[in-house]
Amino acid sequence: GHPPLRSFLGVPVTHGGEFVGAFGIANRPGGYDMSLVHSLHVFTSCVGVMIASLNEHERLQSTKKLLEQKESLFRCLTGLCPLGIIHSNQNAQCRFVNEKWIEWMKHDCSSSSSSFSSSSSSSSIPLSSSSGCPYRSASSSSSSS
């Protein structure tokens, strides 16, 4: 098992005033005093930044995954919709059209003769494609082509 503890120091780790973790050290000959705690301040601060950064990275990855799932559902549902859907920004730049809009209007966002212009922003939602959509039946898939 575990070696016997003769002395122990538990140190809280904070970042921005919030508790993000803790670490402990044990069995130092002579024990621990406040001067050692103060000398660990720089180390503790660095650990706090690393833990907070890891937590933020995990939060961003989770948010990115959720956004990708919601965008996939959005594309699927707009692909199944029997109505034409167009989304443009405040500058009348086309951000998204579904397949039915193109079918009805013979409109393509990338067409330079269009009154809408395609956004080159990487955040724009692409043209709806419901292929691979689990909610799309085989008959609706062939009727939209």
Q: Which descriptors would you attach to this protein?
A:
two-stranded antiparallel sheet, alpha+beta, disordered C terminus, 4 helices, 145 residues
Query: Major sheet: order of its strands?
Result: 1-2
SSE string: EEHHEEHH
The general outline is rod-shaped
- Count all strands and give the number: 4
- Please report the number of helical segments: 4
Structural class: alpha+beta
Distance between the termini: 68 Å
Low-confidence stretches: 112-125, 135-145
Largest sheet: 2 strands, antiparallel
How helical, in percent, are the residues?
A: 40-55%
User: Could you tell me the strand content as a percent range?
Assistant: 15-25%
Q: Mean pLDDT, nearest integer?
A: 80
Rounded to an integer in angstroms, the radius of gyration calculated over CA atoms is 28 Å
What does this structure look like?
This protein has 145 residues and is an alpha+beta fold. 41% of the residues lie in helices and 17% in strands. Strands 1-2 form a two-stranded antiparallel ribbon. It has a two-stranded antiparallel ribbon with strand order 3-4. A hairpin with a 2-residue loop joins strand 1 (8-15) and strand 2 (18-26). Mean pLDDT is 80; it is low at 112-125 and 135-145.
